[in-house]
Every structure is written in structure tokens, then in C-alpha cells.
Design brief:
Layout lengths: L21 H11 L31 H9 L1
Length: 73
């Protein structure tokens, strides 16, 4: 028996996960300096999983010939 086409997920597993495994949390906490080897691994503090960062736009540089022409005027 097959699954009905309306019940299939087009991007199953392809999205951003909002829960980390314990090892992923430990790595993030070590990087931030909030956890050290030998400390308890139970009751870890919460860790943000993703940040929405605005992309920086690169300034359009004028070609050198155009910039020189503007300076001469």
C-alpha cells in the first residue's frame, strides 16, 4: 500500500532544525566558554540554534577609468 500524494512532504528533513542534540549543544557551549570538560551534562542551559543575519551589501566600485574621468572634471 502506498501513501497518498497529498500526505507526502516535499521537503522532508530539509528545513532548519530547532532542537540540537546534546553533543551539538556542548560544542556550542564550549565555544562560548559556558561549559568545561568534566561538568555535568544534564541540565544544560538553552542554546540558540540559528540567527537571522542581514546580508551585507558590497559597495559597487567604479572602474578606475570612470573614477579618473570624474576627478579631472
Amino acid at each position: 500500500m502506498s501513501i497518498h500524494s497529498s500526505l507526502k512532504l516535499s521537503s522532508a528533513g530539509g528545513g532548519q532544525r530547532n532542537v540540537w542534540t546534546r553533543m551539538e549543544r556542548l560544542v556550542a557551549l564550549k565555544k562560548a566558554g559556558r561549559w568545561k570538560d568534566g561538568e555535568a551534562v544534564e541540565g544544560l542551559p538553552k542554546v540558540r540554534t540559528s540567527f537571522k543575519a542581514k546580508a551585507k551589501r558590497a559597495k559597487k566600485e567604479e572602474p578606475a577609468a570612470e573614477a579618473d574621468a570624474k576627478k579631472k572634471k
